[in-house]
Predict the 3D structure of the following.
Amino acid sequence: MNTKPCKALLGGVLALLGASAMAQEAVIRKNLPERLPQLKTIDEITKTGIPGLFEIRVNGSDIFYTDSQANYLIMGNLIDTQAKRNLTEERLEKLSAVKFDDLPFKDAFTIVRGTGKRKLAVFEDPNCGYCKRFERDLQKLDNVTVYMFLYPILGPDSAERSKAIWCAKEPAKAWQDWMLRDKQPSSAAAGCDSTALARNVDLGRNYRINGTPTIILSNGQRIPGAVDDKQLEKALAEVKG
């Protein structure tokens, strides 16, 4: 049996489908910015599992949905009722997934206990009460390396206190003095480069870190909130490699 005509036909169909998808995307990219100028920069357009519905990604990880003519814009979660899955949430988690080794560790200070074999990164605000509770539990862990990213998102005082800690001669000591012993850090020295703090805030926004503390394990797993030492020990034990 000669399969060449079949393959040629299939190739033609796929080419038409590809051309159609490109044409639909072009229409969306034209119409949306004209009608909604705030969406002038569209990062990505992809088809969803629903015929005629497209996912629009803007600002890195903001998700919207629209039809092929961009006549309607939908905000909210797309739920698969049969599989009982929040497809929007799953997509956002994928977009904001953290590659641990890609974190800018130069913008964090390090706390090492024991062998330091187990690694985690933590985003914390010095004015966060939950972070203070978490820090007390963190003291109970051994053989860990903690990369502490100061993440001042709770107001101007958080930024000033973070700057004082970052600019201290021993940032890790200044941090623990404040978080564990309520010892105020000295004011930051004039000329201290604290631009790392602004970079941390930008980084956290890109990763959709909306609260503190947020813990990132070495396998990229994210743990939001002030978990206790037992929960953290369990999570660290489940990290492979």
Observations:
- The chain has a mean pLDDT of 89.
- Residues 4-35 form the longest helix (32 residues).
- The chain is about 40% helix and 20% strand.
